[in-house]
Design a protein that fits this description.
The protein has 146 residues and is an all-alpha fold. The protein has helices at residues 3-37, 43-80, 91-99, 114-143. Helix 1 (3-37) packs antiparallel against helix 2, helix 1 (3-37) runs parallel beside helix 4 (114-143) and helix 2 (43-80) packs antiparallel against helix 4 (114-143).
Length: 146
Amino acid sequence: MSYNELLHLYFDRSNSLQWYWTIYVVVIGGLLAFSSLRQRPDHRTAILVTVLYCFFAYKNLGAIHDVTEQRFAIYNTIRSVPPNPTNSDSSAMLLHSALEPTLQPPEYAGATGVRNFHVATDVLVVLALWAMERRRSRAAKLAQPV
């Protein structure tokens, strides 16, 4: 596999990762919009939405993990394979020296890693869902005639 093909593969995996994050943000936005527009409290709906969101978040995090691992494998291969300039063209060497320091895939499991960010966001989303459900329940109790 050539250096250029490795670069193409690296950025292809980066685009895949970006799509997983985009889907994640869109689902969170839709879920919070759905929850904020509901009028009446319904714990069964809140439980169902929470469980379904947790399933989605788990699978999305798994996909992000897989793509992140693929990016690291490609990154390590890029670092170990020197560019092969053809016809005494030094552009491949310039590309390598300019581009390689900028390829910094984020770590997955560290203190500031992708996994911790995803899980923290998941917890906040579930807390927001249940805060809205609690607000609806309180409003319904206050609206009941005495």
